[in-house]
Amino acid sequence: FRGQEQPLDNDFDRELTLYPNPARDQITLKSNSPLTSVQIIDPTGREIKAWTVEDTEVSLNIAALKPGTYWVRSQDVKGEPSVRTLIVE
């Protein structure tokens, strides 16, 4: 193969912790880079909830979510996205 090597786009450099997981009423996202937005996505890909945030640690109320598996998509100040799986009890 010829050409330039391109790094894979990943979020390995950004530490992002989601807890507790599984959760019922509230989750906390903790990142080493300030977050700007967080979305909850259901299994069909539909956005269920969205927040605009400006911090490295964010607590979010998820009490209205039905039990199941969701994805938590976040974006940091550099525009870098991350996705974590969330289980709601």
Description:
The protein has 89 residues and is mainly β. It has one domain (16-88): Macroglobulin (MG2) domain (Immunoglobulin-like), CATH 2.60.40. The chain has no helices and five strands. It has strands spanning 16-19, 26-41, 47-61, 68-76, 81-88. It is globular and about 30 Å long. Mean pLDDT is 89; it is low at 6-12.
Low-confidence stretches: 6-12
How much of the residues is beta strand, in percent?
over 45%
Query: Structural class given helices, strands, pairing?
Result: mainly beta
- Strand count, sense and closure of the main sheet? 5 strands, antiparallel
List keywords for this structure.
about 90 residues; 5-stranded antiparallel beta sheet; Immunoglobulin-like; about 0% helix; single chain; 5 strands
Brief overview:
This protein is mainly β and 89 residues long. The protein is built from no helices and five strands. Strands 1, 2, 3, 4 and 5 form a five-stranded antiparallel beta sheet that branches.
Architecture blueprint of SSEs:
Blueprint: E1 16-19, E2 26-41, E3 47-61, E4 68-76, E5 81-88
Antiparallel strand pairs: 1-2, 2-3, 2-4, 4-5
